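Notes from the 1:1 (GR / supervisor)

We went over the backlog. Supervisor wanted to see one worked example end to end before approving the batch request, so GR pasted a single chain during the call. The sequence is below; no edits were made to it. Supervisor asked that the structure be written out right there so they could see what the output format looks like.
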Amino acid sequence: MKKCLSLLLAALMLAAVLTGCGGNPSTEEADTPADTGTEQATQTNWNVSPVTGTGTELKFRTGGDQGTYYGFGSVLAQAITSNSDNTKVTAVVSNGSQDNIEQMDLNTAQLGFVQSDVMSYAYNGERLFEGYPVSGFSTVAALYMEQVQIVTCDPDIKSVADLKGKTVSIGASGSGVYYNALDILAAYDLTEEDINAQYQDFGNSADALQDGKIDAAFVVAGAPTVAITTLATAKDTYLVGLDDEHIAKLQESSPYYEEYVIPEGTYEGVPETKTVAVVATVIARDDVSEDDVYNICYTIFENMDNLAQSHDKGKELDLEFAASVTAVPYHAGAAKYFAEKGFDVPTK
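Structure output shown during the call:
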């Protein structure tokens, strides 16, 4: 009898050990965005679209791997793939808005994250796309505001005017950050020639700031942005604010900018900062299936609470805001979804 009890106790102890080894992930794993999304996809009740997608893999171009586009885009792609009927989306790293539109035009990608201003440039053949309009895409949804963040580790740089003569990163080639930087410099009567311009993405800009190789950097992304968060934990970091007079001057020539206040505590040790923002928008090629785009919208906006648990930008999702784009018409699949929710959006 005692031998049987001993064997039983041994079996129970072994089961407990095995359960511990295969149970909850470590804290490090739980903090990884992709792992967090997977855990929630399996443990949380998701609303699944009644529409069946095509099963075609849709490449979703986002941004740099330390930017909000890629972080949030990866969460969205995983949620759509896991929680819609046969709509498959894969998020990939890219050089940003202009690059995304150009690659979509070549059909190497079918979906993309873009700044609202760059989307308008492409559709109308202006600025970045002067003489080469791209019109074979449509709006899926506006998702959140992305702030123009002017980052420095030099406490003496307190205004955009102080950037004169400084070494400043104004965005990677192919991104919309470049023109945002030029617009803001112009509001302070500065040009690209008044600074020692560097052309780096968010991650490289943060590394260069930490190493003292540049004095400041323009980052256009939803705050908090991973690259800046990482920098602020390693070195004293400051955001350069814009004043009311120069914001008004900027908006006179570029009305798509909206005033925005980045709250205190968004980054370690950084106080409240006034700046401007554009809209982060998802677009799709016109030839992407209506059913797939419907499923994308359905998964995002019928599961906003779930997405808010996976990424901070999920907390900013709003149906009315999503349906507010006027610069570029909506995709038929998006229009179908928004019509069901009571929003009439422009289509081609």
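Supervisor's comment: The chain has 14 helices and ten strands.
Batch request approved.
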